[in-house]
Every structure is written in C-alpha cells, then in structure tokens.
Amino acid sequence: MIDRTFRAGEKFRAVRTEVRSMQFLYKDGSDAHFMDTQSYEQLTIPETTLAEPLRWMKESLEVEVLYIDEQPADVQLPSAMDLAVTETEPGLRGDTASGGGTKPATLETGARIQVPLFVNIGDVVRVDTRSGEYVSRA
To answer: Is there a contact between 87 and 107 (Cβ–Cβ < 8 Å)?
Structure first.
C-alpha cells in the first residue's frame, strides 16, 4: 500500500478495464492457456500471475478474465467450486458428520485443503475459492 496526497485539479491517466468470458484450457508449467469463447483466439498468461486462481481451475472451466489497458491481469472465479478429492487418508470407523476434526486432502486440481474426517477419495466437495476452505459435500 502506498499513502499519497494529491492536489486538487491533478490529472490522472484514464485506465480502461474490460471483462471477457474465456475457457481455461490447460497449464503447462510456465503459462496458463485460455480461449476466448467468442472469437476462439487463444491467450497465454504466466502462471506466476495467476497462482491463487489456478489452484481451483479445472480444464474447460469458463472464467471471467479481467483486462486492464488491453492486457490480461486477473481471473475472476465463482465464489465456490465443486471439486473431487483425489487423495486423502481413509476415514476411521466412527467418523461422522458431527465427529469433528479435519485431515489434509488433495483435490483434482492439485490444491491441498483441510476436510472433515468423513470425506473419502472420490467424494466431491464444495470449496470457497476466496478462503480456500471446505464448505460442504457437493
């Protein structure tokens, strides 16, 4: 954050922002690849720019890409997404919805989150993409 004081009448450069609907195609280790759903043009954005949103994005997902001055700047995701659990420790007998406690789980996108003890491999869970927390079973 920067704290600055501006004088009255000081001019600022106009910034043009735009949101375009795109389909996430894949990531290759250095770039994330998207396709414009209207013009079918492909676009690449460095993965380092989109590190947090990429944790939740599956291939073929439709997202909103924010452009600032004709340059892609960010991806806007839904507030919650349903993702399958691909790896977690098995639940123990007696683990129920009211049992409490959590364990680590890996989702189909590679993201790791904490889930309740009753969640198993193959279950689909709803995750809050803003906080990265388990919300419910889907």
So the answer is: no
Are 19 and 43 in contact by the 8 Å Cβ rule? The answer is no
Find the radius of gyration of the CA atoms of the chain: 20
Residue 12 included in any domain: no
Q: In this structure, are residues 82 and 126 in contact, taking their beta carbons and an 8 Å threshold?
A: yes
- Return left, alpha or beta for 70; rule: phi > 0 is left, psi -120 to 50 is alpha, else beta: left
What range does the domain containing 100 cover? 80-137
Number of folded domains in the chain?
2
Cα–Cα distances in angstroms (integers) from residue 5 to residues 8, 12, 105, in the given order:
10, 13, 47
First to last CA, the chain: 38
47: tokens are 């993965």
Report the pLDDT value the prediction gives residue 51, as an integer from 0 to 100.
86
Please write the tens of the pLDDT for every residue from 52-108: 899 999 999 999 999 999 888 889 988 999 999 999 988 665 555 555 688 899 999
Tell whether pTM > 0.85. no
Q: Quick check: is 61 in a domain? A: yes
